[in-house]
């Protein structure tokens, strides 16, 4: 693969937000719902951007306004969103982000794209919370990684990080150590509200 392979964006917005207790994808950190903010962020850098959602979320008002790829039920969790996107558009690379990364910004996206290694299976930020390990939910998954994902699903391995650990993944240092901090619990959300 080379840089001629286009990169599309995928925002993983199909979770149930059990820990938060309400839909974290529509929390307002920047004056608009988070998935709309993330969509606009990726749209500034990529030719096409989609939300990854479960079919029953299709009509939720914010999600309904954006292009969607429905989880196909091939596996579960974030990996189902990733493989469903790969099946829908198999000839592109996918810059996949979680919906709940309020500190990810243009500089971070530009940095990951500029450090992309198209001949690797994927390019991912290095985790600051798990040193030396990839951040799978802010990563570029190349078309060739589909075979690795399919093999993982065949043996019921569903953890995107473990897949990236066990394949040829280019690790990219984060510019901002906060950029991969996600918000999963009400207490974390309250703390952010106090900081504003």
Low-pLDDT segments, ≥5 res: none
Oligomer: single chain
Radius of gyration: 16 Å
Largest sheet: 7 strands, mixed
Total strand segments: 7
Instruction: Name the CATH class.
Output: Alpha Beta
Q: Tell me, briefly, the overall form.
A: globular
Widest sheet: strand order? 3-2-1-4-6-5-7
Order of helices and strands: EHEHEHEHEEHHEH
The CATH fourth-level homologous superfamily: Spore Coat Polysaccharide Biosynthesis Protein SpsA, Chain A
Approximately how much helix is present in the residues?
A: 25-40%
Compute the separation of the termini in Å. Answer: 43 Å
What would you note in describing this structure?
β2, α2 and β3 form a beta-alpha-beta unit. By secondary structure, the chain is of the alpha/beta class. The protein has one domain: Spore Coat Polysaccharide Biosynthesis Protein SpsA, Chain A, CATH 3.90.550. The chain contains seven helices and seven strands; from the N terminus they run βαβαβαβαββααβα. A seven-stranded mixed beta sheet has the order 3-2-1-4-6-5-7, sandwiched between helices.
Keywords:
single chain, 196 residues, alpha/beta, Spore Coat Polysaccharide Biosynthesis Protein SpsA, Chain A, seven-stranded mixed beta sheet, globular
Summarize the structure.
The chain is of the alpha/beta class and 196 residues long. The protein is built from seven helices and seven strands.
Topology overview:
Elements lengths: L6 E6 L21 H10 L5 E5 L7 H4 L3 E3 L6 H12 L4 E6 L7 H9 L7 E5 L7 E8 L3 H10 L5 H6 L3 E4 L13 H10 L1
Parallel strand pairs: 1-2, 1-4, 2-3, 5-7
Antiparallel strand pairs: 4-6, 5-6
């Amino acid at each position: 693969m080379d840089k001629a392979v286009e990169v599309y964006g995928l925002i993983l917005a199909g979770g149930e937000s059990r820990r938060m207790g309400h839909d974290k994808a529509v929390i307002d950190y920047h004056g608009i719902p988070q998935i709309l903010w993330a969509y606009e962020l990726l749209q500034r850098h990529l030719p096409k951007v989609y939300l990854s959602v479960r079919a029953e979320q299709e009509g939720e008002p914010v999600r309904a306004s954006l292009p969607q790829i429905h989880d196909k039920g091939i596996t579960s969790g974030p990996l189902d969103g990733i493989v469903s996107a790969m099946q829908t558009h198999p000839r592109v690379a996918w810059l996949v982000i979680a919906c709940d990364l309020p500190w990810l910004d243009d500089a971070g996206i530009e940095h990951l794209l500029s450090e992309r290694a198209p001949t690797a299976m994927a390019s991912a930020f290095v985790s600051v919370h798990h040193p030396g390990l990839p951040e799978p939910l802010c990563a570029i998954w190349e078309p060739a990684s589909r075979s690795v994902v399919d093999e993982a699903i065949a043996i019921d391995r569903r953890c995107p990080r473990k897949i990236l650990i066990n394949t040829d993944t280019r690790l990219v240092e984060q510019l901002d150590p906060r950029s991969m901090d996600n918000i999963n619990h009400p207490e974390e959300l309250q703390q952010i509200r106090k900081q504003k």
